Amino acid sequence: MDKSELLDALRNMITDNKNELFDEVIEKRTRHLTIIIENMFQEQNASAVIRTADCLGLQDVHIIENNNKLKINPDISLGSSKWMSIHQYYKNENNTIDCIRQLKEQGYTIAATSPHKDDMLISELPVENKTALLFGTELTGLSQTAMNEADVYVKIPMFGFTESYNLSVSAGICMYDFIHRLKNSTVKWQLSESEKTDILYDWARKTIKRSDRVIENLLKDSK
After folding, report:
1. Are residues 123 and 63 in the same domain?
2. Who's near 87: CB < 8 A, 6+ residues apart?
3. Which of 11, 90, 123, 212 has minimal Cβ neighbours within 10 Å of its Cβ?
4. Contact at 8 Å (CB) between 84 and 61?
5. CA distance 186 to 138
6. In terms of residue numbers, what domain contains 97?
7. Per-residue model confidence as pLDDT tens digits over 122-179
8. Are residues 16 and 38 in the same domain?
9. Smallest Cα–Cα separation from 99: which of 62, 147, 136?
10. Can you tell me the distance from the alpha carbon of 108 to that of 111, in angstroms, rounded to the nearest whole number?
11. What is the DSSP letter of 123?
């Protein structure tokens, strides 16, 4: 029994309403845009960023934990992290380099967000390339390593006295701008069929109680 057959069996155990929601959401999911959160310790901001990413259809969030272990606040994320692919980087000496270089190998352009660079506005960032938006901490921003490893730098227009937006607001503006332009373009941003199968399988597994035992029994019965 392959994963596709397992998925069909699992979905037969899920309500029609939940299956319809899965089918609706998966068609709007994308990996063309992803986000990286570097060394963020403010769980309120990070949880709000993840919730916004889910609402805008992003599937992946990459969390770099060099000095700070990030805890996602369920009251703010409202369970959004359950349906997303959360990738955490904490095992190596320099997790920032590890994360960024892995994404570059997957074809992503790394766009560092900083109000101190004059590269381009977020509205000028091309949507044709797979892109990872890189965000740092509220107080100190991105590390110098992250800035050095980035391919481009983006900022949001500001017209007031303060130097920067709240971090979660900044992330929300950047993600919305990119996704809005992406979905109004001719770029193929949708997931592949194999990606859809993998993600739906993960969602089904998280929905069914004791799913590991259920899957084990299905595999036994198929032999």
Report:
1. yes
2. 60, 61, 62, 63, 99
3. 212
4. yes
5. 35
6. 30-189
7. 999 999 999 999 998 877 789 999 999 999 999 988 888 777 778 889 999 999 999 9
8. no
9. 62
10. 9
11. G
